[in-house]
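_Backbone structure tokens_
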Amino acid sequence: MFDDLPPDLDRLQTLRVWHALWVDRIDAKIAALRQRQAEEARGRQSRPAPPDWVVELGIGSSRQPVEVHVGACHMAGKRRRAVSRDEARRLLATGLRACLHCQPDTQLGIIDLAAAATCDGVPLHCR
């Protein structure tokens, strides 16, 4: 049998203490990671649901609406506020730009919004 452990009691006890310290460190790390995972899970569960519709706001003191997005759209900027379905439809109908990525106009059932917002074949938001 292959035995690579030291033959004397003092060195064996030293190894045992050293390994016991490592097992304690490993157990502490496992406990910390389990606590972190539990906290992350609680955070995900208690996070509020994103709004259905958001309007991206411009820069400046007036912060005028710039673009309408679906609530979970990752293209919406940091300056935004939640709006109701009716307000989103109203803003789009008055000519506010719809996000080309999430297409809130399509999801709101507004048909031919792009065609209605053109003048001589050129989209109004491109002028």
Observations:
- DSSP finds four helices and six strands in the chain.
- The mean pLDDT is 87.
- Helices lie at 9-46, 85-93, 104-107, 113-116.
- The beta strands are 53-57, 65-70, 80-83, 97-98, 118-119, 122-123.
